[in-house]
């Protein structure tokens, strides 16, 4: 288990799941949550490669924070198929202040563990991570 400066660790399973998304394209997305009892970042849910961006958005809680990685496939103007991995720090405005603080203080250390992420998005509502936002960032 990796040890974060905030005292928050990263479960080995979390890192392995991220590597499956990155290297083997086993998952379209991975949603992580902080387990306050074990003080580590754990996998809450994974999405199959065939799942849509809407499926991913629907998997995020409306009222609690999460970290997520999303493997975004797109076609460039030169008609090349590309893929970029986004790290999303989801912190809805209605979530508990304690949760927002916990996720904010643990984010940079966890994010550094995820080697291979291309872009990072901080979102407090779904419009801040709309599919168009990903498209614009990926180009």
Automatic annotation (TrEMBL):
CDD domains according to UniProt: ADF_cofilin_like
Single GO term (MF): actin binding
GO CC annotations on file: actin cytoskeleton
Pfam families documented for this protein: Cofilin_ADF (PF00241)
Keywords, comma-separated and alphabetical: Actin-binding
Gene3D superfamilies: Severin (3.40.20.10)
Domain of life: Eukaryota
One biological process term in Gene Ontology: actin filament depolymerization
Record domain ADF-H: where: 7-139
InterPro entries: ADF-H, ADF-H/Gelsolin-like_dom_sf, ADF/Cofilin
Family designation: Belongs to the actin-binding proteins ADF family.
Function text: Actin-depolymerizing protein. Severs actin filaments (F-actin) and binds to actin monomers.
UniProt name for this protein: ADF-H domain-containing protein
Organism name: Spirodela intermedia (Intermediate duckweed)
């Amino acid at each position: 288990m990796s040890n974060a400066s905030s005292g928050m660790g990263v479960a080995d399973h979390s890192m392995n799941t991220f590597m499956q998304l990155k290297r083997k394209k086993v998952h379209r997305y991975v949603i992580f949550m902080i387990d306050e009892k074990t003080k580590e970042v754990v996998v809450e849910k994974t999405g199959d490669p065939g799942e849509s961006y809407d499926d991913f958005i629907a998997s995020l809680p409306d009222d609690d924070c999460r970290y997520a990685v999303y493997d975004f496939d797109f076609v460039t103007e030169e008609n090349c198929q590309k893929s970029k991995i986004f790290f999303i720090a989801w912190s809805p405005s209605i979530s508990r202040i304690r949760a927002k603080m916990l996720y904010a203080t643990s984010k940079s250390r966890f994010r550094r563990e995820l080697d291979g992420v291309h872009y990072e998005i901080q979102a407090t509502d779904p419009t801040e991570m709309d599919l168009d936002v990903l498209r614009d960032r990926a180009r």
